[in-house]
Specification:
Helix content: 10-25%
CATH class of the largest domain: Alpha Beta
Low-confidence stretches: 1-45, 124-130
Number of helices: 13
Strand content: 15-25%
Oligomer: single chain
Mean pLDDT: 87
Number of domains: 2
Strand order of the largest sheet: 10-11-9-13-15-17-18
Shape: globular
C-alpha cells in the first residue's frame, strides 16, 4: 500500500541541552544501538493485514493455508474480518490475496508527522509534589505556557469542578507513554496498556529493563497523552482524573505506524474497555491501491462505535485539501464514526509563556476540507516571511507556537543514516525534567479526546451524543457553518459541558 503521509521535519532549536558523556554498556540509555534487520523489516513486508471478503472471522482452515505458504498468523481480528500474518514472501502474499475469500493482503502504514523542537531543560521536582495541583490545574507550575487550554476554555470547566473521572479511560494509540513523569504518574492504567510493535519491545528490554515494555521511546505519545489528562504539576491537560491506556502502535524507528499494529490496537482498545480512542496519526492511501486497508479501518471504527467507544483522529499535516485530493483517501478521517480534527494555534507564543499572537489562527501545516474536518483544536502554528537579496529568496520562520509537555524519560533518537538509535537528553539526565514542544494535528486531536472523556462521564458511552455535544459547543470560526478549515468550529470545553 502506498502512503501519502508526510515525513517528520525538524524544528528550529528551542535551546539545546547538552548531554554528559557516559560509559556505554548494554543497559545504558546513552549507548548507541544499531537498528537490527528485524526492526527495519517491521516496516516492510514482515507483517501484513489480510482482509477477508466477509466482515466476520477467518475462513475455515485459514491458519493452515498461511502455514503452507511459509507464514504464521499473529492475530485473528474477528470483529474486523481481518488477520495479521507474518513471514510471507511477496509471492506467497500474492497467492493468498488471489483466494476467493480474501479481499486483499497489504503491508503498509503511516509515519508520524508532528514537528518537535529540541527539549528545554527544567529544574527537577520531587515526586511528592507531583500531584499537588490535581484538583486545581490552574496552579500548574508552567500554567502560563498553556495557551492551548485557555483557548478552548478548559480553565472555565476546571473552575466548575469538571476535572474528569477515573472511571473513564482514553486509549492513546501512539508510540507509548512514559508513566513516570510528574504530570502522568498514577494516571496510566499499567495493567491494560499494551505494545503491538515487537521491534520497540526489544529495545525497551535492552535499554530500560525495569520499565513496562510499552514505555515511550519516541516522545510523541507522552506529549499526546498529557494533553488529555495530567496531574498538572508542570502543565495542565484537559482533564486531571481521566485514566489513560497506552497502546503502542507506532515505532521509534522513524515514527512508523503499521496498519497491522494500528488495526490490532484499535480492536484491543475496544475489547479492553476504552471509552475513547485517540489516534494522532493522519495519512492517505490511493483508493485504487488500498481498498483492503480502507475496508479494515472502516470495519474497526464501526466495531468501536457499536461498542460505545468514541474515536478521535487527526486530519493530518502537509496542508492537504481533503476536498480535492483526487484518488487519495484520508484513511482515518474518510471513515464514518470518527471525529476528525484540524489544528489551530498562535502565530507566535513569545518563546513559550506569551504574548500569544492570534491564538485561533488556522495552523499553517494542517490539512483541511469540509468533507473531512469536524472540529478544530490547538496544535501549534508558525508564520514565515520571505526575504530577498538579488535573485535569491529565503523563507524564514519569524514566529511559532508549540503544545508543551514534560519529555519522556525513556526517549531515544532514531538516526536513519546509519541506522542507529542515539541517546537523548531526556533519558540521560535522570535528575532533570525536560520540557518538549510539539506542533501538529497530532497535538490538536487529544484536546478533543479529553473533551470527549468529560462528556462520557456525563452522558455515558454514546459516541453519537458525545459528537453532538462537541460540535454544538464549538466556537464557529472562519466561514459561518461548516468551514473547510475549522469544520464546525474550534472546540469550547465549557460550552460543550453546558457551562
Amino acid at each position: 500500500m502506498r502512503s501519502l503521509a508526510f515525513r517528520t521535519l525538524p524544528l528550529l532549536a528551542l535551546g539545546l541541552a547538552a548531554c554528559a558523556d557516559q560509559s556505554a554498556s548494554p543497559l545504558d540509555p546513552s549507548a548507541p544501538l544499531a537498528a537490527s534487520a528485524s526492526a527495519a523489516g517491521d516496516r516492510a513486508a514482515a507483517r501484513r493485514v489480510v482482509v477477508f471478503r466477509a466482515a466476520t472471522g477467518a475462513p475455515q482452515g485459514f491458519a493452515a493455508r498461511v502455514r503452507a505458504l511459509g507464514g504464521t498468523v499473529e492475530a485473528q481480528l474477528a470483529p474486523v474480518g481481518a488477520a495479521v500474518v507474518a513471514g510471507l514472501s511477496d509471492e506467497a502474499a500474492a497467492s493468498l490475496a488471489a483466494s476467493a475469500d480474501v479481499q486483499s493482503v497489504e503491508g503498509g502504514g503511516y509515519v508520524l508527522d508532528a514537528r518537535a523542537g529540541e527539549p528545554v531543560e527544567m529544574e527537577a521536582e520531587v515526586a511528592a509534589a507531583a500531584v499537588a495541583s490535581t484538583a486545581e490545574p490552574r496552579t500548574a507550575r508552567l500554567y502560563s505556557y498553556g495557551w492551548n487550554m485557555r483557548a478552548i476554555r478548559a480553565d472555565a470547566a476546571w473552575a466548575a469542578g469538571e476535572l474528569g473521572s477515573p472511571n473513564v479511560t482514553v486509549a492513546i494509540l501512539d508510540t507509548g507513554i512514559d508513566p513516570t513523569g510528574p504530570d502522568l504518574v498514577g494516571l496510566v492504567d499499567l495493567a491494560r496498556s499494551r505494545s503491538f510493535v515487537a521491534a520497540d519491545d526489544s529495545v525497551t528490554r535492552e535499554r530500560f529493563p525495569t520499565r513496562a515494555v510499552w514505555t515511550d521511546l519516541e516522545g510523541h505519545g507522552t506529549n499526546v497523552a498529557a494533553q488529555v489528562s495530567s496531574n498538572a504539576a508542570w502543565l495542565a491537560g484537559v482533564t486531571s482524573r481521566t485514566k489513560l491506556m497506552a497502546v503502542r502502535v507506532c515505532s521509534v524507528y522513524g515514527g512508523f505506524c503499521s496498519d497491522a499494529a494500528t488495526i490490532q490496537g484499535i480492536v484491543y482498545a475496544v475489547d479492553a474497555g476504552a471509552d475513547v480512542i485517540n489516534l494522532s496519526v493522519g495519512g492517505s492511501v490511493f483508493k485504487s491501491q488500498g481498498r483492503g486497508s480502507i475496508a479494515a479501518y472502516q470495519r474497526a471504527f464501526g466495531y468501536a462505535h457499536r461498542k460505545g467507544v468514541t474515536v478521535v483522529v487527526a486530519v493530518g499535516n502537509g496542508a492537504v485539501d481533503r476536498d480535492h485530493d483526487g484518488d487519495a483517501y484520508a484513511t482515518y478521517c474518510g471513515a464514518p464514526n470518527v471525529i476528525c480534527v484540524s489544528a489551530t494555534g498562535p502565530l507566535s507564543d513569545g518563546g513559550g509563556a506569551g504574548p500569544f499572537e492570534e491564538p485561533d489562527a488556522f495552523a499553517a501545516f494542517s490539512s483541511y476540507g469540509r468533507s473531512a474536518v469536524d472540529v478544530a483544536a490547538p496544535g501549534g502554528n508558525w508564520k514565515t516571511e520571505d526575504f530577498s537579496y538579488g535573485e535569491e529568496t529565503w523563507t524564514v520562520v519569524t514566529g511559532q507556537s508549540r503544545v508543551w509537555s514534560i519529555c519522556s524519560k525513556s526517549k531515544l533518537t532514531y538516526d536513519p543514516t546509519f541506522p542507529v538509535l542515539l541517546p537523548n537528553v531526556c533519558s540521560t539526565r535522570p535528575g532533570t525534567h525536560f520540557l518538549s514542544g510539539y506542533q501538529g494535528t497530532s497535538q490538536a486531536t487529544p484536546h478533543v479526546a479529553g473533551l470527549a472523556a468529560l462528556l462520557v462521564a456525563r452522558h455515558g458511552r454514546d459516541p453519537s451524543a458525545v459528537r453532538r455535544a462537541i460540535v454544538a459547543g464549538a466556537d464557529d470560526l472562519g466561514q459561518p457553518g461548516t468551514d473547510p478549515f475549522y469544520g464546525k468550529g474550534r472546540i469550547n470545553v465549557a460550552r460543550s459541558l453546558g457551562l
